[in-house]
Amino acid sequence: MKSKNGQVTIFIIIGIIIIASVVAFFAFRDSFNINPIPASIEPAYNSFLSCLEDDTFAGISILGSQGGYIELPAFEPGSTYMPFSNQLNFLGNGIPYWYYVSGNNIQKEEVPTKSEMENQLADYLNGKINRCKFDNYYVQGFEISMGEPDATVKINDNDVRVYLSMSLNITKGEDTFLIKSHDVNVNSNLGALYKSAKKIYDYEQQTLFLEEYGIDTLRLYAPVDGVELTCAPLTWNSNEVFSKIQDAIEANTAAIKVKGGNFALKSQSDKYFVNDISVEDDVRFLNSKNWPFAYEVNPTEGNVLISKPVGNQEGLGILGFCYVPYHYVYSMKYPVLVQVSSRTPTGTEIFQFPLAIVIQGNNPRIALNTTAVDYGLPEICDKKNTKISVNVYDASLNPVEAEISYECFGVKCDIGKTSSGVLSELFPQCVNGDVIVRPEGYEETRYQYSTISSGSVDVIVDKIYNLNVNLKLEGIDYNGDAIITFSSDDGSASTIIYPNQKSIELSQGQYSIEVQIYKNSSITLGATKSQQCLDVPQSGLGGFFGFTKEKCYTIEFPAQTIGNTLAGGGKQNYYILESELSNSGELEINAQKLPTPTTIEQLQNNYVLFDEKNLGVTFK
To answer: What's the pTM value of the predicted model, to 2 decimals?
Structure first.
């Protein structure tokens, strides 16, 4: 009896297994694909898989070329202060910055995660797969219908796997085939390239090595700090300085390298450009002068950097020499595009992303604290609730087009642009803020206005005119070296280095015009020594109780030959009328001569006489 009962139990278990297998077969037969694809239908299905693979390659290419994005983030414009939008226009395509500073000076980063890239690629495939072309099969009598796609993507270091759930029914004559799941595996280094790109980005955020290269370039190609032995002012044209910096940054950025990939140290001098970032892929860093940038330098007089000598002023003859100290503070903002690439059987695969390089006050920016990034507008700019009308006119009361902004407690809010000289928009509420009017071809104008209640503002702007400058010395045309400065009553100044620059942009207003003419000289100052004494702490117990003793040092100054000396010029206050600017094409300035100095005392005396000399100012 026990043997019979055991046999019955075995048969029951076998029966259960058979029933479960039958149920599983019918439930999952489409997933198992047990039924082979009919030979007549197989070409059409292979064409579908090929289409899915092509779409995957296309999506991978977009992800790599757009910094890990297929659907770009919402566009954010930049500003004159921060020229970056949130996208770099590269060969006509927008690439989102992984790090940038918004137009209202907020640090932001938009680094996609790998899961976000996978989701974007899946959404891309869902939108593309129904567009696969089967025209060649339709004419052969095929009937093909597709359901709703639902793709899942897995990005690995060396491949991208796509799992597509979608009903696909293919019929040809008597043969019909229905399949609901489709898999493709694409050879791609997208995952590995993303890892390398992220490693480079993290290294930059930790070390700011790209900013450090920018600072080194700045100090090599622009006047920053220094002292020169001369009695004539040192001058630089800021436009020429910035042009040299741009050329140098473009070239030096391309020379930056990282360890790994195809890197090979060609010479010991290359070590400077090599960074300790170990990646297996090839890496390039790019910058272009045609990309957005902002360079600023202070102090300046117009577009000229001027450093004046010490030692030729009255009462300083005891020095026995002249020197010119200079210190300029720069702010620079420019983009760098990082490209990471690797070889594949089908060609070269690239992943690229841009980031903003920010140098402020000759120093790199503060590294981004990603846990404290604010993505909103300043609160005051986000609460515009007072209707204000701004009317912009020229001196003849003709309407002028202009960009309007409003500044309150150091925060500037963009308002909009006038239409036919009029803008009527909501402003943030503020007491004694500034309406800033920026018309093209006219002077920027500020008008203090409180926006507590609705109202209207009329602003008259002065047109800017470009005039040729003709300098004369005692009535005779002068083509030697001179510095001509126009200082307006609002504190701004424009300076030209004559004769390299012979034009100036001016608007109506009160100016202090100053001309300094320099000629070659042969004043030779011998080497001198001077003694300087200081009180220093005593050694031993006396120093502990604060006792001091006198210690003297001998300072030696080398011999100096003065190559340029002040030989003419003068000053003149003059109110320039718009009628003079509009009816003239040339500004003639007549300066007076000064005695040619042969000693340091005579040179100092020239500066005293200079203050007493007037200028002749004539519009022609």
So the answer is: 0.66
Residue 616 has pLDDT above 70, yes or no: yes
The full length of the chain comes to 620
Residue 89 within any structural domain of the chain: no
Task: Please indicate, yes or no, whether residues 338 and 392 belong to a single structural domain of this protein.
Answer: no
Q: Is residue 87 part of a domain?
A: no
One domain for residues 196 and 172: no
Domain count, the chain: 5
| Cα–Cα dist 351/192, whole Å | 10
- Please indicate, yes or no, if residue 583 is contained in any of the structural domains: yes
| 416 in Cβ contact with 369 (< 8 Å) | no
| 41 and 17 co-located in one domain | no
pLDDT over 90 percentage in the chain: 46
Q: Give the pLDDT score at 553.
A: 60
Per mean pLDDT, which range of 111-115, 122-126, 563-567 is the poorest? 563-567
Tokens of 100: 């940038």
Q: Which of 235, 322, 308, 224 has the alpha carbon at shortest distance from 499?
A: 235
Where in the sequence is the domain holding 365, given as residue range(s)? 191-372
Residue position matching structure tokens 């509009």 = 582
Kind of pairing between the strands at 282-286 and 324-327: unpaired
> Given a cut of 90, is residue 231 above it in pLDDT?
no
Sequence-separated (6 or more) residues with CB below 8 Å from residue 91: none
Listed residue (79, 107, 135) closest to 407, CA to CA = 79
Domain co-membership, 395 together with 510: no
